[in-house]
Specification:
- The chain is mainly beta.
- It is about 10% helix and about 35% strand.
- A hairpin with a 5-residue loop joins strand 1 and strand 2.
- The radius of gyration is 15 Å and the shape is globular.
- The protein starts with a helix and ends in a 25-residue tail after the last strand.
- The chain binds zinc ion.
- The site of zinc ion has 7 residues, from loops.
Length: about 140
C-alpha cells in the first residue's frame, strides 16, 4: 500500500521535471543516481534487456556490492514492477515497451535514501542525429541559438 502511494506521488511530481539527455562512455543513456553527480547509471539495450551500468563521478565503473535497484514501468494507474537482476557492472532488467516510461529507484546502500531516475523509452528516430530519441545526441544548447 505504502509503495503504491509513494510511486503515485513520484510519478506525479516528476512529470514536470526537465528531461536532459546525456550519453555515457558506451553510448548509453546516462541517468543520475545521486543528488550531486557522484553516481550515474548508463542504460544500454542488448537484445530484450536493459543493462544499467553503475558509474562514478568520472563515468568509471564502480564495484557492485550493496547497491540496489527497483524498476517499474506502465502508467500511473497500473505501474508494473520489473524483475531486476544484478551483475558485475550493475543491473539488468527487461526492456520496456516503446513509448513507455522506465522509473528506477537506486540505493547506494540499504541505509541511503533512494534516488529516483526515469527515462522515456522513445524509440522514434531523431531526424537530426539519427539516434533513437531516448539516445538523442542533439545538445539542448543548440536550440538556444
Ligand atoms: Zn537528435
Amino acid at each position: 500500500m505504502k509503495t503504491k502511494l509513494l510511486l503515485f506521488c513520484l510519478i506525479t511530481t516528476l512529470s514536470f521535471a526537465h528531461e536532459g539527455v546525456e550519453l555515457g562512455p558506451n553510448g548509453g543513456r546516462i541517468l543520475e543516481f545521486s543528488k550531486d553527480e557522484t553516481m550515474h547509471g548508463e542504460v544500454i539495450v542488448k537484445g530484450d534487456l536493459f543493462h544499467i551500468a553503475v558509474l562514478d563521478k568520472n563515468m568509471k565503473p564502480v564495484t557492485m556490492n550493496e547497491q540496489t535497484l527497483t524498476a517499474v514501468t506502465g502508467d500511473r494507474a497500473a505501474p508494473q514492477k520489473l524483475t531486476v537482476e544484478k551483475d558485475a557492472k550493475g543491473f539488468v532488467i527487461p526492456v520496456v515497451k516503446a513509448g513507455e516510461w522506465l522509473i528506477l529507484q537506486f540505493k547506494k546502500t540499504p541505509e541511503t535514501k533512494a534516488i529516483t531516475a526515469r527515462l522515456e523509452y522513445n524509440t522514434a528516430i531523431c531526424e537530426e542525429c539519427s539516434n533513437a530519441e531516448w539516445l538523442c545526441k542533439c545538445k539542448p544548447e543548440a536550440e538556444k541559438k
